[in-house]
Structures are given as C-alpha cells and as structure tokens.
Amino acid sequence: MPRLGADMTAGKVVKWLKQPGESIKRGDIIAIVETDKANVDVESFIDGVLEKILVQPSDDRLAVGTPLALISAEAGAAPAAPTATPTAAAVPPAAVVVPEAVTPAAAPPAVVPAAPSPKKPAPTVAGARARVSPAARKRALELQLDPAALAGTGPQGRVTLADVERAAQGAPTQPGPAGPVAVKEAPTQPGPADSAAARQLRMREAIAAAMARSKREIPHYYLACTIDMKTALDWLTERNAGRAVTERLLYAVLLIKAAALALREVPELNGFWIDNRAQHSEAIHAGIAISLRGGGLVAPALRHADRLSLDELMRDFQDLVKRARAGSLKSSEVTDPTVTITSLGERGVDSVFGIITPPQLALVGFGTPRERPWVVDGAVVPRPLLSATLSGDHRATDGHRGALYLAALDRLLQQPEAL
Amino acid sequence: MAKMTYREAVRDAMREAMRADPLVFLMGEDVGKYGGAFAVSHGLLEEFGPQRIRDTPLSESTFVGAGIGAALGGMRPIVEIMTINFSLLALDQIVNNAATLRHMSGGQLGVPLVIRMATGGGRQLAAQHSHSLEGWYAHIPGIKVATPATVADARGLLLAALQEPDPVILFEHATLYSQEGESEDETPMQFGRAALRRPGKDVSLITYGGALGKTMNAATQLAEQGVEAEVIDLRSLRPLDTETIFASLAHTHRAVIIEEAWKSGGFAAEVSARIMEGAFDALDAPVARVCGAEVPMPYAQPLERAALPQPEDIVKAVQELI
C-alpha cells in the first residue's frame, strides 16, 4: 500500500487493472486505491511482470506498507509460482510498495524480497497494561483505534476519553509529562461504514494529521507583498477577448505559471525537507489546493508547471480540478507536488498565510485582487492590487530568499506576455 | 415558601404531622420540658401535652423498643435519639426488631417508626459525640435511611418518612440546625431520590448530609478555576438512587464521593462500588473519595477541622482527577 501523500496512513484496494502474468511498464496504472481523500490510480514504479496479487479488492483498510502484489523486477521473466524462498535463478519479486513516496525518510523503496510485516504499535512497559480509562477504552473500540498506542494526558499518563476523541479527529495528543509519545497506527480491520460522513471524517483526520505535523515540525516564516495586477489583468482581458469561452484563460493560471517560474529563480524553496536537510527538486510540480464539494481539500500536482505554456497549463488545471473533485487522481499527482499554491481569490479574502504541506519547503498564497489606491509615478491611482504571500520553512530558507522569491513573482506578473 | 432554620423546619413538620394525625407522637430524651437537646421540639409540649410529647428515661434500648411496640400497635411514633453515638445502645432494637419484624411475621406486622437523630462532627464534641455512622444503618435491609441536608429536605423528608410503612431513620447533621433556608410547603417528597444540587459537566461530586455545604463551596471554587462540577445530594442512602448517579457519570465521566465518615467500609465505598458495577464504561478516571481522617475525632478545633473533609480537600481531589 503506497503512501499517497504524507498524511496517508491506510487505504483500500478498489480494483486491480492488471492481472497476474501481465507485463508491466514503469508508470503503468496497475490498481486503484482509495485513500481518505480520493480514489487514486497506483502506478508501478518498476518494469516487470505481475506475479501475484496478494490483496483482493475489499473494504479492508490496509496500513501503508502492506504488500499488495508481487512483481518480478525483470520484464519478460516467466511468471513463476511464487514461493516463500525464491530460487537462486529467479529474480526476487518486488513487493509493490512505494513507501514514503513523499517522505523518503525511510529506507529507499528498493526491491524488497520479502514482504515487510506491518508495524505494530510499540509495546508499552513490558507486561504492563497501558493506562487507559474505561470510557476511553470503550470509545476507542467504537472508533477502532488502539487506545494503548495513544499518548495519555490524564493523571499518570492515562489515556482519557478526550485523548481518544482528539485522536479520532486526527489531532496529535499533547503528551503529559509521564506520557510516552506513541503513534497512532492505522487500523487494518474493516473501517467504519463507508458512508459519505465516514469518508468526510477520514479526510478531516488526514488533513488534521498533516497540518498538525506541519505546525509541530516546521518553523514557518511568513512574507507578504502587494502586487499591482493592472498589467496582467489588462493583458488577460485583451487575450481572452477574441476567444471562445472554452479557450479563455483563468487568471489563476497566470498566477500558477508565475509562481512556478519564480521558483526557478529561487530553487531553495522547491522540494522537500527530509532527514534534517533540504532536498531540492529540479522539477517544479505545483500542488494546487483544490477544495472539494462537501468539505476538505486536496493539493495534487500540476506537473512541470514551469515548463507548460499557459494554454497547456489551463488544460491540465481544468482536468486536474475535475478529476480531483471526481476522486480519480493518479498516485504520482498525489505524491509529486514540490510546492503548494493556494488561492482564496474567489473567496474574497485579502491574503492567505498558509500552512506548508509537509515535507514541502514552501507554500505560495494569493488573495483577491482589489481596486485600491496605489502610487504610480508620484500620483495616486486606482489599481487592482493582489496580496501574494509566502510561507517558508525556516529550517531550509531564510526571509531573504523568500523576499527574493516574492520580488521575482512580482516582476514576472508585470510581464504577462512572457509567461 | 417560608424562610426558617433547619431546626424550625423539623419542628414544623412534626407539628404539622401531629395536627393532622392523632396517632403521631414524639418521644425521646429531653424532648418535652427542655425542648430537645438541639431545641428542635421547643414549644411542642405546650401545644400537644405530655401524652404526645414524651420525655423518656436515659435508656435508648428501652424507648426505641417502646417506639417499635407503639408502631406495631398502630401508632405513628417519632423517636428522637439525642445523638448517633447513643443510638448504638439501641442497635439491637433497630437491627434485630425494627428491621426484621415485617419479614419475620410473614408480612403481618409492620413497624412504621420514624427515628430522628443528630449526627456528625464539627462542633468540638470530641470522639464520643461526633460520629458519622449513617453507612452502618444503610447496610441493613428493612430500614430506610435518609439524610436531609437542606431546610426544605428537613421538612419534606420527615413528612415523607411518616408516610412509609416501615422504619425510617433520619440523620440530621448537627451543624445544620441553625442553617437558614426556604422550606417548601408541598406534598411529601418521594423517598429514595437523589437531588441534583448543581449541574456541571466535568466531574460529579456525590455527597449527602453535612458534607453538602462544603461540597457546594468546593464546586464554587472549582468553577473559578474553570472546572464545572456537578453536585449530587444523595438524600437517601437506602434505597440508593443509582439512576441519578449513573446519569451524571454519563456526561461527567468522573466522580468524587464526599462524606464525613471514615473511609474504610464507609458509605462512599458503597457508592464507589455501585459506580464500578453500573457505570464502568463511563469512567474516565478512578472514582475518588474524600472522607474523614481515620482517627477518633479530636477535640482541638484545628485538629477536628483537619480530620473532617474540607472544601480545599475536595478541590484537591478533583484537580488530581482532571
């Protein structure tokens, strides 16, 4: 079960798109997995032959890292009956796992000969029963949580009802002085009834876990600058004037392109924070925050946003929004973003100071362009002004780099024809 | 509704009952000419005469036994025992006779007897006059045990006791007699119902009798700290209203039981056990008890204060749970 996003802990196999014996190329979609947020197409990360499907589609929520299938790593190898111990001649089959695709903090997802056993919560003091109040134990059972894996905030580190409720909402418990910090393990039993409400709850849990992790781990700094959008909007109006509605550009696309291009100038903001250091990404995959009907959001990647033309970006952007809302994103789109862009322009807010999606390094935010007085050449004139913000990970970059980024963004938006 | 003291409320209830029913009478040590050791029956001799307000010899076994006999004979006696420690002299009559005769007679003989007595410490009367043995009596099937803690209950529970077909013991905490409050002139209240004295959501403080005031005081202090304590006055120890306790636990998930009595084998232990049996899954913390220190009651005022549960002890117990 691949980790399709830093916040994912478990998923369900919805469907297999390849059968045992079929040859598979890297990037082929082999299965559809349902995460807390969406149905995601799982791509193979190697060439090979699908040897055996280990998990049939079901409502079972499988912890990230659970082997789903065996793929022999060499294309063309005859599908052999899988054995516990591969013969010397046979290429060891690889478990289809893309563990930590977003957070490659763990061991590299190399070919794994044997299926890793699912992790179990770290045992508490040997032989001792975890301190869990009766009410907490009962509620945890209802929620299918392991209360012993939670950090208790009650007297003597006892797990209380409130700790379980907090865990159910995905927020971290605040460990008390005596409370050991434990990690909630995704349940591998069938999840609660897959109602819209249950999915909604799981999405909220996932968002809560990611955002809480971000605020817990990432020392954010925030910068804002006001950008005069007159040139850009005038250019856009003129460009859209002669076009059919379907061919018109949305102004958001200008912002995405400019934000992506500016990252080329300040590449320190693009990539991930892994193993206590920044790992910059050459590719610029802009994670676009898309709010979903019924609540929640996803931020799938517009891949290579800096390289695409505005028309291509527009096409991909619309496609991405449509698929995100339909719940059919590709696994690479979910795991790829190297930066997040959020625009609350349609919501009428002036500016947004976002929370970085871990383990990314930055988040770019846009507010609503508004007509306001602005001084141009010594005269006060009305101009559509846009607040652009940057949330940066201070471990990776300093305000100085962030300021350079916003300056580049401003400059790029003054030359819309060059975007 | 009238404002009066607890003492006056008990007196009013007895007066009302005697006016309404010629079978009701009062007997006990010094209840007549002296007006009662706590002046509860002051003035009743003048109104009802020595036939119905009877001074007795200093022999608890004798006059409680006489009360049982009168009740068997169809009267509605109210027997006042001066203080709870003296009631030990009448234990044989209460436990072996009053509590058992309906059962032993195959249902033919009832003992509609009301025994009132002062209980509790806090008045510097030292180790022989400060007991809280209500829990002992609550142990006995066949008698009902009530602990009026307010002026309204002093009246209401006495009138309710006089409606019961079987023996009832009313424990009047001696520090309450001078307490003022509203007395409600309503029909007799039902026996065996606890009263919610203060609603809250964070912890249930379960108490009765003389500890109610201290518990309410603690709840006020806790509110200032942002802890909303619910206060339940048991009112009746037998029968025990577990329904009200469980309903409270269902939303507070924590309980502290407060009583003056010693902890070992006390009534708080019974309440705690009932919670364990009936509301285990509601508990978010162990049930806590604030009880009297396990020593014979000291005479010295600071020591006596230290031996009795105080509001700060209750506050501390709650803080340790949350």
Q: Roughly what fraction of the amino acids of chain B lie in strands?
A: 15-25%
Helix residue percentage of chain A: 10-25%
CATH superfamily of the largest domain in chain B: Thiamin diphosphate (ThDP)-binding fold, Pyr/PP domains
In percent terms, what proportion of residues of chain A is strand? 15-25%
What is the name of the CATH architecture of the largest domain in chain A? Answer: 2-Layer Sandwich
Summarize the biggest pleated sheet of chain A. 7 strands, mixed
Shape of chain B: globular
The H-and-E topology of chain B, N to C, reads as: EHEHEHEHHHEHEHEEEEHEEHEHEHH
Whole-number mean pLDDT of chain B: 96
CATH topology annotation of the largest domain in chain B = Rossmann fold
Q: Identify the overall geometry of chain A.
A: globular
Q: Which spans of chain A have pLDDT < 50 for at least 5 consecutive residues? A: 75-127, 172-193
Report the largest inter-chain contact: A-B, 12 and 9 residues
What key attributes describe this structure?
heterodimer, A: alpha+beta, OB fold (Dihydrolipoamide Acetyltransferase, E2P), Chloramphenicol Acetyltransferase, 7-stranded mixed β-sheet, 20 strands, B: 322 residues, alpha/beta, Rossmann fold, 2 domains, 13 helices, 14 strands, globular
Task: Please tell me about this protein's structure.
- The complex is a heterodimer of chains A (419) and B (322).
- Chain A has 419 residues and is an alpha+beta fold.
- Chain A is built from eight helices and 20 strands.
- Chain A has three domains: 10-95, RNA polymerase II/Efflux pump adaptor protein, barrel-sandwich hybrid domain (OB fold (Dihydrolipoamide Acetyltransferase, E2P)), CATH 2.40.50; 134-208, no CATH class; 219-418, Chloramphenicol acetyltransferase-like domain (Chloramphenicol Acetyltransferase, 2-Layer Sandwich).
- Chain A starts with 9 loop residues before the first strand and ends in a 6-residue tail after the last helix.
- The relative contact order of chain A is 0.12.
- Mean pLDDT of chain A is 79; it is low at 75-127 and 172-193.
- Chain B has two domains: 2-183, Rossmann fold; 195-321, Rossmann fold (3-Layer(aba) Sandwich).
- In chain B, strands 3-2-4-5-7-6-12 form a seven-stranded mixed β-sheet, with helices on both faces. A five-stranded mixed β-sheet of chain B has the order 9-11-10-13-14, with helices on both faces. A two-stranded antiparallel sheet of chain B has the order 1-8.
- Chain B has helices spanning 6-20, 44-48, 60-72, 84-87, 91-98, 101-104, 134-138, 151-161, 212-224, 242-252, 267-279, 301-307, 311-321; strands at residues 2-5, 24-28, 53-55, 76-83, 114-119, 144-146, 168-173, 180-183, 195-198, 203-207, 229-233, 236-238, 255-262, 288-292.
- Chain B is an alpha/beta fold.
- The longest helix of chain B has 15 residues, at 6-20.
- The mean pLDDT of chain B is 96.
- Chain B is built from 13 helices and 14 strands.
- The interface between A and B is small, with 12 and 9 residues.
